[in-house]
Design brief:
356 residues; four-stranded mixed beta sheet; two-stranded antiparallel ribbon; 8% strand
């Protein structure tokens, strides 16, 4: 009983640990002990200025690519420092996490498994992470998006778009930028950026309002409309920031026709012509230091700070406390049994003496 109590007390001391920080290059490796309570399901891990990447069943080269893209978004000049410390601090506060599986089916299989119950308990009690998914089968380091933007000369590039450019950006803007600069970049109609998105939509409607019209057609007057019925205005802002920023940086030019049913301003010239104020905002890197001036290309030469959180293993603590309670109850029951047995034996002995 004493050893179990001592173990529980020792575990409680560990729970008081604080996040630790260390300087290291962008590296991909096993999941650290400090985060295993929530992220132990992964087989690969990276930490970029406090933002976490956890992968399961994905090639290490693709996880490395995602880590480099994230680092380049946050540190576009590659000097090893986060370009906007407020954004990085918010990502740390939100326990921002890029979740990588090879396919969406792999993700569904895990999230429906019994293992997820254990990690789910720890996620909820540690404060649910701000997470974004990215799949290995949509991660294309050799995408023509990089050649389109002028950051690669690869003639053998694939027409498949590299979703890393989108999903990593969603994590950083929704989990960081929009919350730090809510009046300007917030994902609502009340923010400056949200107003620009409403203007670009014109009268083309959207899926969630059940009035979507193809913006590339002559049936409406607008440049951006999304037919996804699950994507509300908050979502439209996140998507719109991705479309506008990556178009300004040149990543969408090569597939302009393929995306026109949703976004028609696929190059910087069109963006400046039809959304001059938005373009000026996206180019104002002096006011908004988080904005990248160059498209991340999957390479990164800086040495970003790692801020690895200590996440409490509440599930394990619960089991320990349950064990303590069980042992304690069993001990109490045993003592009651012993007392009653002695009393019964005493009564039996007294009765025999009286008969004699």
């Amino acid at each position: 009983m004493q050893s179990v109590t001592t173990f529980a007390a020792s575990l409680c001391v560990l729970l008081a640990a604080h996040p630790r920080a260390s300087l290291a290059s962008v590296s991909v490796g096993p999941v650290p002990e400090d985060v295993k309570a929530v992220m132990g399901w992964g087989d690969l891990y990276a930490n970029v200025f406090g933002a976490n990447i956890v992968a399961r069943g994905v090639a290490e080269s693709k996880v490395q690519h995602a880590a480099n893209v994230m680092a380049s978004y946050l540190d576009n000049d590659n000097d090893g420092k986060c370009d906007d410390s407020k954004v990085c601090d918010m990502l740390i506060e939100n326990t921002a996490m890029l979740v990588m599986f090879q396919t969406s089916d792999d993700a569904d299989e895990f999230f429906e498994s019994a293992d997820m119950l254990w990690y789910g308990i720890n996620m909820m009690l540690n404060g649910e992470p701000w997470y974004q998914d990215l799949y290995g089968d949509e991660t294309h380091p050799d995408s023509c998006a990089f050649k389109s933007a002028g950051v690669s000369t690869d003639e053998d590039c694939t027409d498949e778009f590299d979703a890393t450019l989108e999903e990593v950006l969603h994590l950083l803007t929704s989990g960081g930028v929009s919350q730090v600069y809510e009046d300007d970049w917030g994902e609502s109609e009340d923010s400056t950026f949200g107003g620009y998105m409403a203007d670009l939509n014109g009268d083309c409607g959207n899926g969630y309002t059940h009035d979507w019209i193809d913006p590339s057609s002559d049936d409406c007057d607008g440049w951006y409309a999304y037919d996804d019925e699950t994507c509300d205005f908050e979502c439209l802002c996140a998507e719109g920031l991705y479309w506008s920023l990556t178009s300004l940086l040149g990543a969408q030019v090569y597939r302009e026709d393929d995306i026109s049913h949703e976004w028609t301003l696929a190059n910087a010239t069109k963006l400046a012509k039809h959304a001059a104020d938005l373009t000026a905002m996206l180019q104002d890197t002096e006011t908004w230091s988080w904005l990248p001036a160059n498209l991340p290309d999957g390479s990164y030469s800086g040495q970003p700070e790692e801020v690895i959180p200590y996440l409490v293993n509440y599930a394990a603590l619960f089991l320990v406390l349950l064990l303590v309670c069980v042992v304690g109850c069993c001990g109490a029951c045993w003592r009651v049994y012993v007392v009653k047995s002695r009393a019964k034996n005493s009564e039996g002995g007294a009765a025999k003496g009286a008969v004699v």
